[in-house]
Structures are given as C-alpha cells and as structure tokens.
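ugh ok fine here u go
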Amino acid sequence: MVSVSLFQKPIVKVKLADLLKATGDFHSDHIVVAGSSRVGTAYKAVLPDGSALTVKRLNGCPLGEKQFRAEMNRIGQLRHPNLVPFLGFCVVEDERLLIYKYMPDGALSSLLHSTSGDLDWPVRLRIGIGAARGLAWLHHGFPIPFLHQNITSSAVLLAEDCEARITDFGLPQLVQCSPIDSATADESPFMNGEFGEFGYVPPEYASNPIATTKGDVYAFGVVLLELVTRQRPTEVSMDAAGDGFKGNLVYWTNQLLAAGRLLDSVDISLRGKGSEEEILHYLKIAVSCVAYNPRERPSMYHLYLSLKSLGRSIIHQSISMNSLCLWKDDSESH
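structure:
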C-alpha cells in the first residue's frame, strides 16, 4: 500500500488508493484547469467524506526519487494566502503526483474566456491585486527570488469570493522538457513550449532563454491585460480589433496606446460604468509590465503596491501588509 506524503496535518489521511478511486483512475471526466497542462494534468479528486483535492499528475520528471523528495520539501515550505496550498505528494515508480487544495471557482482563464458570467471591475481588480501579492512574495520574500517561470491566467486559481491564488510555483525543475523537433530546432526552449506559454513569453527569451524576475513580470502583465480586455493572449477577436488585424494581445494594446485609444481595449461589459479613469490607470500599469526592454518593467513589489493603491478607492476589504510578510512599511523603498 502506497501512502501520500503530506506537509500539514490532514483533515483525513489520504492513500494512493483513495486518490485513484477519487479520480476514477485519472479519468478524463475529472480533468480540471489548474496551471499548465504541459507541466501535468490536473484532476479533481472527491474523497469519501466529500472533501475535494486537486491532484496534478506530472507528465515527466527527470529527478530521481531522492532529489524529487528534496524538491518537494522545498516547495512544501512555500505558504502564503495567495498561493494555492500545496498539501503533499506521492511517488510510485515513475509516477509523480502533486496534491493541492481544490479551488472551487477554478482557473481565471476559464472564467474570463467562458461565454457565461460577467466579472465587474472591482472583482477583476481584486483578482489582479491578489495574484500580484502572491508573485511579489515569491520574488521578494527570499534572499534569492523564487521564480515562477510559467505565469498564465490558467495558473491563477480562484478560491471563495474570487480570491486569487497562484499555482504551479516551483515546477520547472520537476518536469522533463519535451525534445525539440526539427520544426522548432532554431527556437529557444522558452519559445518552443518547454516553459512559458505562447503569448506570455517575453521577447528577450528568444535570444537569451534565461529565466528572470522581469520575465515573470512580463507574463503577469499579459494576465493583467487579459483581465481587463477579456481577450486571449495569442489573438484578439475581430469584434475588438477589426477585420484584418494580425497580432497578439500585447501588440494590439501597444498599438492602441500609441494612438491614444487605450480605453478601446477594455471589455465592453466594463464600459460606461464610471470607472474609466481607474481602468485607464490600471491599463497603463499593465502595459508597463510588457515593455519590450525588461529594464523598463517594474518589480513585482512596486507593481503590487501600484495595484493596491489603485484598489483602495473601490475595494473595501483591506490587504494587510502584516499578512503579506514582506515589509514593515509600504513606504520603504526597494
């Protein structure tokens, strides 16, 4: 009988047999969107007592069991209100299973790009602030920044009341990169899909594929643009951009910025409701994150503070810097 290694005292003890039964032996009906599908496939597991977990089945892991367990222990120490709680893992021969708390409202990507339901502006800003807070903690809460390397709207999950939580942190070392085929042999490893989803990869990675904090900032900026435009990162709908437009979300918003028409990018459901000034400020923050030159992008700390300051006027629930566990005073310079 194979047991599951847990980092925190569980409400119920979980065994591999329980996970297999709870996911229907990893049946496709249990698949959920929770981070990159290239990293691994995520399944909703409903245990006999009715509680739910998310089980991510890694597609491949180059690490031996001893190295894998050491990496799990490192990731298991990362606990923050805006990270998806990582509860434990399981090693069975070549299988590597990661166990997370289940997020009932799903992935931001699913919510934004589904045909049902609208998100009002305060909720979208709250999501952006929460996700920024989590990534800022990863970047600035340690002597050496903890890089995410795969930020997307699918890696931002939503708990109750649309509280944003980031998943897939710490996974680059755990996944066996796919081999480069002849069609992509001249592309960098970030561009050909080993890490970094299409539409989220900063331009500098094409010539210098070394992960940086500013690379994470770029990807997060794309998420911020998705939040306010409701457009996909790799393409813009004809209804929004017009017939004949060829380009991605970043290119489109930069075109509108240059033409002085940045508000034309805003999701039509948000227009005409009196929040134009705040939304324009937000858009300018988002566009600064996707600047071509990485030196011109803000740090995640300053990005978080900018969004938090913008949100004070419309979000009544304060976000405590004490619980952020980063700095004693927002006014300190970093």
